[in-house]
Q: What sequence folds into this?
């Protein structure tokens, strides 16, 4: 057998062996991975409204208990009306409600944004006044660790708490990630609409700001209802 | 013959100290800088690399006589990549939080020069058992340095070990401060430099 044919044959056999091994591993472990991802999402939803602390790693029972007690998944239609799962239309958007003592304390919207290297997915929680941000978390991204990857860190996310998506005049302005520190760059009257950016990751900040704005505009009908006190 | 004189013993223990992949051969520095902020991630990374290195050395050595010379690097890489993806999948299934912290670095084991170097220089020319021992030895040598650096960095940088506070609060009250520098990559660079220095001085006889 000529050496070329031998090489090609060897490469084909090796690819088949390695490929099937990986397929086996990936299908076999998929269930566990999906469970982890679902748990991680619940954890992030609870983190965005401050129900669990970032520092301690909560157990599976704590998280699913808190989640079952306080979080209700609903959909909103184009007018911003809340509809239950059974009645949801095709273009309705999902929203998570934080319910405590029969009252909606905050609503949590899923954020899907473009990043520098891939998609960024997270949750933005807004208090029931429809204006004040309660928290922001990221559960999946592909940004560079140490630079854009800092969006998953606490120091970055905690800046979102108590910022506003409305300006002083009551117009919708969204929340923007500044290029560097807010102090000294942004006029004081607008500090509440900006969070500190990450140095060395202006592009990640730019994409995430745009993603947040687009998502918030989609959910504006709901936010407006909260501002007008139409939802209790 | 004494056990310390056998070839197998030497193959296993040499890379742990004398020809350590990091401090002796200066390989795999990039990941050693990146994942040593905390002890936990360093240990998991060390285990993942040891697993990949042992398996890749063993399997490459088993088929070393069949591998066509002209495509051997590609073959080695395919085997290594398969093992790394497998390790990554297992971490995602059972140690999700740690796998998130390690992020891209598990995937980057594929490009870790230690693994390629051992496959090329050892596994291709030696029998399976010795190659396996060489893989485990090198993996442990790598882990050993990672753990030492991580202990230094977590203790000095955050006052913690395994995430638990080790340095008592009374120290902080008395004016002690965490060394923020150790949390950054240059801190690891200096720590590794000191270990290389220490190792070279000690093993000079």
A:
């Amino acid at each position: 057998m000529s050496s070329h044919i031998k090489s090609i044959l060897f490469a084909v056999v090796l690819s088949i062996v390695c490929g099937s091994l990986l397929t086996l591993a990936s299908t076999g472990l998929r269930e566990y991975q999906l469970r982890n991802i679902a748990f991680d999402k619940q954890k992030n939803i609870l983190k965005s409204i401050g129900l669990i602390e970032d520092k301690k790693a909560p157990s599976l029972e704590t998280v699913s208990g808190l989640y079952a007690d306080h979080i209700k998944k609903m959909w909103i239609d184009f007018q911003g009306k809340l509809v239950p799962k059974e009645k949801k239309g095709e273009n309705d958007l999902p929203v998570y409600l934080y319910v405590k003592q029969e009252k909606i304390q905050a609503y949590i919207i899923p954020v899907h944004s473009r990043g520098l290297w891939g998609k960024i997915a997270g949750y933005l929680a807004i208090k029931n006044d429809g204006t004040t941000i309660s928290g922001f978390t990221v559960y999946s991204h592909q940004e560079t660790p140490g630079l854009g990857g800092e969006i998953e860190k606490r120091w970055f996310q905690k800046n979102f708490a108590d910022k506003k998506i409305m300006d002083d005049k009551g117009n919708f302005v969204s929340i923007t990630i500044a290029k560097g520190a807010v102090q000294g760059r942004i006029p004081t009257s607008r500090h509440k609409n900006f969070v500190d950016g990450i140095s060395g990751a202006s592009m990640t900040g730019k994409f995430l700001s745009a993603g947040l704005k687009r998502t918030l505009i989609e959910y504006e009908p709901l936010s407006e209802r909260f501002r007008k006190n139409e939802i209790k | 013959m004494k056990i310390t004189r056998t070839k197998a013993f030497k193959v296993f223990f040499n890379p742990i100290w004398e020809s350590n992949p990091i401090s002796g051969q200066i390989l795999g520095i990039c990941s050693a800088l990146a994942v040593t902020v905390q002890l936990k991630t360093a240990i998991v990374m060390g285990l993942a690399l040891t697993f990949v290195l042992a398996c890749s050395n063993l399997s490459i050595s088993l088929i070393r006589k069949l591998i066509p010379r002209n495509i051997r690097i590609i073959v080695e890489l395919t085997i290594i990549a398969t093992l790394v993806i497998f390790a990554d999948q297992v971490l995602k299934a059972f140690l999700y939080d740690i796998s998130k912290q390690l992020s891209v670095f598990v995937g980057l084991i594929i490009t870790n020069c230690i693994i390629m170097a051992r496959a090329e220089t050892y596994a291709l020319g030696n029998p399976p058992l010795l190659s396996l021992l060489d893989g485990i030895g090198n993996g442990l040598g790598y882990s050993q340095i990672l753990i030492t650096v991580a202990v230094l960095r977590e203790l000095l940088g955050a006052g913690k070990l395994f995430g638990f506070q080790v340095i008592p609060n009374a120290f902080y009250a008395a004016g002690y401060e965490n060394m923020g520098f150790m949390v950054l990559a240059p801190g690891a660079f200096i720590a590794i430099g000191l270990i290389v220095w220490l190792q070279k001085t000690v093993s000079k006889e």
Notes: The mean pLDDT of chain B is 87.
